[in-house]
Write a structure and sequence with these properties.
Layout: E1 3-8, H1 15-28, E2 34-39, H2 45-49, H3 57-66, H4 73-87, E3 89-90, E4 94-98, H5 109-123, E5 128-133, H6 138-141, E6 147-148, E7 150-155, H7 159-174, E8 178-179, E9 182-187, E10 199-204, H8 208-215, H9 228-241
Parallel strand pairs: 1-5, 1-7, 2-4, 2-5, 6-8, 7-9, 9-10
Antiparallel strand pairs: 3-4
Length: about 250
């Protein structure tokens, strides 16, 4: 059964790096059937993982929407499914799917209905789905993902960060989707903070190795597996997800 891990937080919180490190952690446990989904319009997850995306779901959605009304419905659906398959970038042990920009002012209802159907079908083929979302969680709010096992809100332990955590939690509870578990990860902190009603998953310390890799255009795979940030990620998700090591 597929486990979906969604990561959310405001820009600059470090959520994309943490999303990439979760993928790295799952790979280190021997899991090789992982789908990384970049659902942030800024689309930096591929860079952090060292994978270049070929196409985005937004491009496919726009193309489908612009097809002539005379196009046969079945042909349009098949074209959409083929486009999604072509948008998956393959890497060693995992695949990457990039959602792209959010919707424009026009109605995308029909395209989103098709999109939900095939994203659910695509996700079910993987053991783990790791989704990097923006703070507004556009794709979750549009129900392009229907079921989340764990939502991790990434924030800095300061008043702005704590307010962001509360707002994302409130938004999540208002969405017409299933989120089985939700918690906060405090980034660049040794102690973190407490937000009433939200589980504290842990605190990830500032890690110079992670910062240097980012500044030099490196990926999470260029960082040693014993760096403080990655060791903390391993502990948090081993405890939270009960991930088994595959031999």
């Amino acid at each position: 059964m597929t486990k979906t891990i969604a990561i959310s937080g405001k820009g600059g919180s470090g959520k994309t790096t943490i999303s990439a490190m979760i993928v790295k952690y799952l790979l280190s446990c021997g899991h090789k059937n992982i789908l990384a989904v970049d659902a942030d319009p800024n689309a930096c997850l591929g860079i952090t993982l060292g994978v270049e995306h070929v196409n985005t779901i937004a491009d496919i959605r726009d193309t489908s929407r612009k097809q002539k009304a005379t196009t046969d419905g079945m042909d349009r659906t098949r074209s959409f499914e083929y486009g999604i398959q072509q948008a998956v970038s393959e890497a060693k042990g995992f695949d990457l799917l990039t959602m792209g920009r959010p919707e424009g002012p026009d109605c995308y209802c029909a395209a989103n209905n098709i999109l939900r159907k095939f994203l659910s079908k695509l996700s079910s083929a993987y053991e783990y789905v790791v989704m990097d979302n923006e703070a507004g969680m556009e794709h979750l709010s549009r129900r392009t993902t229907d079921n989340v096992d764990l939502l991790c809100i990434v924030a800095d332990p300061n008043p702005v960060g704590m307010l962001t955590v509360r707002r994302i939690a409130e938004l999540t509870r208002s969405l017409p989707i299933t989120v089985k578990e939700m918690g906060v990860i405090w980034n660049r902190s040794d102690n973190g903070a407490e937000v009433e009603g939200i589980r504290n998953l842990g605190s990830i310390p500032y890690d110079k190795a992670i910062f240097d890799a980012s500044m030099q255009g490196g990926t999470v795979f260029d960082v040693a597996p014993d760096c403080p940030a990655f060791l903390t990620i391993k502990k948090i998700f081993a405890d939270t997800l009960n991930v088994n090591t595959v031999k």
